[in-house]
Design brief:
The chain is α+β, with helices and mostly antiparallel strands. Helix content is 29%, strand content 31%. It has a domain at 11-72 and 89-98 and 130-164: Peptide deformylase (Peptide Deformylase, Alpha-Beta Complex), CATH 3.90.45. The strands form two sheets. Strands 1-2-3-6-7 form a five-stranded antiparallel β-sheet, sandwiched between helices. The chain has a two-stranded antiparallel sheet with strand order 4-5. The longest helix has 18 residues, at 147-164.
Length: 167
């Protein structure tokens, strides 16, 4: 099933995600549906809040042949080396701006099989993990862009918000 991706202005994007208590059939189905939704939207990652599900889950596919299904992630290490790269978001369509993030991170999460995974990530994978993790913390990439860049996209953000809050 393909979920509807919530757009900037939707309250689910600004709600702190709740931990997953048990990996059951429902959680596994949500993860499968999130992968399908992410691929349908040509995304690299998708977090549960982006589809209106208040759970600490996200999926990532950077094209390396591994689809990561991430449950209750923790970032346990961030490098001091910061790099600015352009980011976009399925929940903030049409906006791409440079975001500063750690170049190298160490993460811990539970996979769909209930196994704890500790992984080091850099480049696109590291950036995607940080971006999706932010969604679980109710943070959007546009919260991390420069004030000048934010001013440049204010009108577009207002339009997205207006569109997403229509009843």
């Amino acid at each position: 099933m393909v979920y509807e991706i919530k757009i900037y202005g939707n309250e689910s994007l600004r709600t702190l995600a709740e931990p997953v208590v048990e990996i059951d059939a429902e959680i596994l189905q949500i993860l499968e549906d999130m992968v399908e939704t992410m691929h349908e939207a040509n995304g690299v990652g998708l977090a549960a809040p982006q589809v209106g599900i208040n759970k600490r889950l996200f999926v990532i596919d950077i094209g390396d042949g591994i689809i990561r299904k991430v449950i209750n992630p923790e970032i346990i290490e961030l490098s001091d080396v910061i790099e600015s790269n352009e980011e976009g978001c399925l929940s903030v369509p049409g906006i791409y701006k440079p975001v500063k993030r750690s170049v190298h991170i160490k993460i811990k999460y539970t996979n769909e099989n209930g196994k704890e995974v500790v992984e080091e990530a850099d480049d696109l994978l590291g950036r995607a993990f940080q971006h999706e993790y932010d969604h679980l913390e109710a943070i959007l990439f546009i919260d991390k862009i420069s004030p000048v860049a934010k001013r440049m996209v204010t009108k577009k953000l207002q339009l997205l918000k207006k569109e997403s809050t229509k009843i």
